[in-house]
Amino acid sequence: MPPSVVSQQGTVQLPSSTDSGAATAAVVDVAQTQTSADKDDNPDPPRKLSQMALIPLKHDWVFWHDKYVANATPAEYTENLREISDVNSVQSFWSVYNNIKGPESLSLRYSLHVIRKGIKPLWEDPLNERGGAWNFRTSKADAPVVWRELLMALIGEQFAETIAEGDEIFGLSVSARWNSDIFQIWNKDSTLKDQSTVMVKVKDILKGIELQSPFYKAHKDHDHFNSTTK
Predict the structure, then answer these.
(1) How far apart are CA 128 and CA 124, in angstroms?
(2) 159 near 201, Cβ under 8 Å?
(3) Which of 62, 104, 114, 151 has the fewest CB atoms lying closer than 10 Å?
(4) φ, ψ for residue 34, nearest 5 deg
């Protein structure tokens, strides 16, 4: 049985090898409590992530924050995007996650994003403009748990098996509204959405949480989409 470690969020089961997919097992159980890890009779007590060699992620990811401005032009929206930090290991992910505010602290219509490094959270980004996103709402009370669980699935590559060949998952966003929060899971190719089981996976991850008004929308179908390659 592979060893385990303890992060600030709980017990992490490590994979038996540290190849490009190693983070999948390393983050999947990270929200468990440390109670069992501290028992004296534990034959294989977990180790702290800070004491381990870096556990690489398959892809590098970037945390972003955007500030809402009414009727903003694409240029103004871009100006209000702030890059928080990039992460490339399980350790760096939890270091950033544990030191920034979550969706419960977002002002109305402000957003948080975690997007593949090299891509901006913009519909018009050259790598995004042929893609789209699965959208759904959750209650304010559920939003922090949904954000955490889906981020773990994202960086742990749990969505890889849910998408069509040739497609990729590019990121996750959460945006604050009056009485709910909107989540978006971004993908590369909107024409492949019907071959995906992303929302089946989301419902499996978030058992017991109500997902309101789920739908998919291609970026180019938004009223304010402004492709640079039209």
Answers:
(1) 6
(2) yes
(3) 104
(4) -95, 10
Regarding pTM above 0.90, the answer is no
Vertex 134: Cα angle to 132 and 139 (nearest 5): 140
Structure tokens at 67: 């500030």
Torsion, Cα 128 129 131 137, to 10 degrees, reads 80
Alpha-carbon distance 103 to 175, whole Å? Answer: 7
- Sheet-wide strand order for 180-187: 81-89, 56-66, 111-116, 169-176, 180-187, 132-139, 212-218
Nearest to 25 by CA among 50, 48, 57, 60: 57
**Measured in whole angstroms, how far is the alpha carbon of residue 125 from the centre of its chain?**
18
DSSP state of 170: E
Structure tokens at 169: 């998952």
Fold topology of 59-221: RNA Cap, Translation Initiation Factor Eif4e (3.30.760)
Res. 179: pLDDT tops 80: yes
Q: What angle do CA 5, 2, 63 make, to 5 degrees?
A: 45
- The ranges assigned to domains in the chain are 4-51, 59-221
Give the mean pLDDT of 91-96: 98
Structure tokens at 57: 């992620």
Q: Which residues pair with 115 in a beta bridge?
A: 62, 171
Q: What is the C-alpha separation between 164 and 57, in angstroms, rounded? A: 21
Rg, the chain, Cα only: 18
Tally the residues of the chain: 230
